[in-house]
Amino acid sequence: MSGVAVESSDLSGEGRLGPGQLVLVVGPSGAGKDTLIAYARERLTGRADISFARRRITRPADATENHIALDERAFAHGVAMGDFPLHWQANGLSYALGPEITGEIVAGRIVVANGSRAVLGRARARFARVRVVHVTAPLEVLAARLAARGREAHEAVLERLRREPALDQTPDLRILNVDAVDAAGERLAAFLSGL
User: Which residues belong to the signal peptide in this entry (predicted)?
Assistant: First the structure.
């Protein structure tokens, strides 16, 4: 059973978590998802009905993303205990949304999280209301952004971009992130404000 107690009244529609909604910001590595999420978080400061998730990742913390670093053992323990309402593997790492997300959704809030296209089906099975924002950019822009991070060699960057999964349905919002961050960031903030 989960480390977070979920009463039957916390669920809506076929046992899915609600009444709040999960907004997953998805897209290829290097699209600028974290940058746009940070921009929207700043613009929407003071909106008590919107929260921004800090993912658990089996990667040391760094300046490129505000996440909670876990080692593989702690991550596996969290999965085994049912602490993570959503978790997935990508690019050799493990990712999860933490147990606090359950409370936010049950309280009726909008939770915004950097997600994965590969986990959208599981998200829809777990949460009553899921919105999808697809952020992307041209391949050469993605490759340049990933190279600038300095985490992977050029061939590893290209391999990562080649294996990106397709979306399983039309997103609620699509952002081509090639302009200044405020242009794309305003689109995300406006979308979230309208939910």
Answer: none
Is residue 142 within 8 A of residue 149, CB to CB? The reply is no
Does 115 appear as a known binding residue? no
Q: Which two tokens stand for residue 173?
A: 């919002």
Specify the CATH number for the domain of residue 37: 3.40.50.300
29 marked among binding-site residues? yes
Instruction: Judge whether 8 lies within some domain.
Output: no
List pLDDT tens digits, range 96-140.
Answer: 999 999 999 999 999 999 999 999 999 999 999 999 999 999 888
* Domain span holding position 159: 14-193
pTM: 0.84
Nearest Cα to Cα of residue 118 among 96, 97, 89, 142: 89
3 in a known ligand binding site: no
Ligand-binding annotation for 5, yes or no, is no
Position 139 in a domain: yes
